Amino acid sequence: MSGDAPMRSFAANLPAPEFTDAAFVTPVPLAEAKVAIVTSAALHRANDDAFGQDDASYREIPRDARDLVLGHWSPNFDRAGFTADLNVVFPIDRLEELAERGVIGSVAERHFSFAGNQPDDLATIIHDSGPAAAAELKADGIDVVLLTPV
Amino acid sequence: MCVLAHIIEAAGIATVTLASMRPVAEKIAAPRVLHGEFPLGRPLGKPGDPEFQHDVLARAFALLDAPSGPVLESHPEVIEESTDAVSCQIPPAFDADASPAVAEARGIRKAYDRIVERRGVTTVGRAIDADTVPAALEALERVIGGTPLKEAELPGKNTVAVCHDIRTYYEEAAIELAAGPVAGGRAIENWFFDETEAGKVVLAARAALSDQGAPFPFWFYMAPGHR
Fold first, then answer.
1. Given Cys at both, which of B99, B108, B123, B137 links B173, Cβ 3.0 to 4.6 Å?
2. CA B109, B110, B113, B114 torsion-angle sign
3. Who contacts A145 (Cβ-Cβ below 8 Å, separation ≥6)?
4. Tens digits of per-residue pLDDT, A14-61?
5. What is the pTM of this model?
């Protein structure tokens, strides 16, 4: 019995917001770029506030934090991969390795996490918490954001 | 995720999005997307495989070289979810006074404690802690026996959160108990729901709550939708 297939069919038929005049930024060379991760896996530190159901807020994840809890409310995806290796959702150790090798310029001091399970209209994320997180990333001098879903 | 990419790009930061569902990524058309047909919940594809994860990241970051967008590519490797259950030996439980599920939950406690010690963190705790898992299973057994939810004295109260914690307690222990490399996507979920006594209790309690006429969100999200 497949679990992923019905989720894929369900999601493919959800309404999707349209972005007209979408921005497309030309970044600095990757070897000079400061890179941050933004995930929708509802990750948070063990001592940080948990995500509620339909929670459109976000949490900061410091660069060195590994005490991360998978706070996503949906039961409909594999969670064991994250438990075995958080990099399969939040590839922070891989970014550190890329920085050591000089492939990317540097790793951001803080990263951000949203909850992927959201009300269908996404209004709060589009108009409030999303732009707020983007402003924080901009203030941190981030050049490239890697987004990882769950 | 693709929506956040648009928002962050609009703030003047270049984004690269890993996407699990190509049709969704096509509709939202984020600036740069690497789609990976990997098990849901594993956007980097393979836990415990840094080489593969670096391959995903290299393909994703290569999209930054595109002069204009949106650009959407797929990773060449498709990884299917596992249809089998992980092979996982549950320690025998000797507890004549407890139900099979409660004895089983007590039996895996040492494995759970070992992985929490090793990882330094647990995702159990949304509504109940590990100490409370046996009592939660007893309450769900009362629901199966016909007790209305309000009278079942379910610790943690929120059925969805409690079942999340029970499942997570088992899944974390299973990673400790299963030998070898990390199991495929959903292999540990399959073990919990298909092979453990607790998984059977969760599914039966969910069916009982549905039969009792409990509100849909109270019972449906106690387990994955396809179950």
1. B108
2. negative
3. A35, A36, A37, A38, A137, B5, B8, B13, B14, B15, B16
4. 877 778 788 999 999 999 999 999 999 999 999 999 998 888 999 999
5. 0.94
Distance, in Å, from the CA atom of B225 to the CA atom of B208, rounded to the nearest integer, reads 16
User: Going by C-beta distance under 8 Å and a sequence separation of 6 or more, which residues neighbour residue B5?
Assistant: A145, A147, B15, B17, B30, B31, B32, B33
Structure tokens at B116: 């929490």
Out of B31, B47, B126, name the one closest to residue A24 (CB). B31
Interface of A with B in 68-127 (CB under 8 A): 68-71, 73-85, 87-89, 91, 93-95, 97-98, 103-104, 114, 116, 122, 125-126
Q: How far apart are CA B12 and CA B224, in angstroms?
A: 38
Span B63-69, mean pLDDT? Answer: 95
pLDDT band at B117 (very low <50, low <70, confident <90, very high): very high
Greatest alpha-carbon pair distance for chain B in Å reads 69
Using CA atoms, how far residue B134 sits from B23, B42, B105, in Å, is 42, 30, 6
Residues in chain A: 150
Q: Which two tokens stand for residue B212?
A: 């009792």
**Distant-in-sequence, close-in-space partners of B47: CB < 8 Å, separation ≥ 6:** A81, A82, A84, A85, A87, A88, B182
Please report residues of A whose CB lies closer than 8 A to that of B188.
Answer: 78, 80
Q: Which of residues 66-95 of B touch A (CB under 8 A)?
A: 67-70, 81, 83
List Cβ neighbours of A29 (8 Å cut-off, separation of 6 or more).
none
CB distance A33 to A105 below 8 Å:
yes
Q: Does A25 lie at the interface with B, CB-CB under 8 angstroms?
A: yes
Cβ count near A86 (within 10 Å): 22
Instruction: Specify which residues A36 forms β-bridges with.
Output: A145
Which chain A residues in 118-147 lie under 8 Å from chain B, judged by CB atoms? 122, 125-126, 130-131, 133-135, 137-138, 142-147
Any idea where the domains of chain B sit in the sequence? Answer: 2-74, 100-220
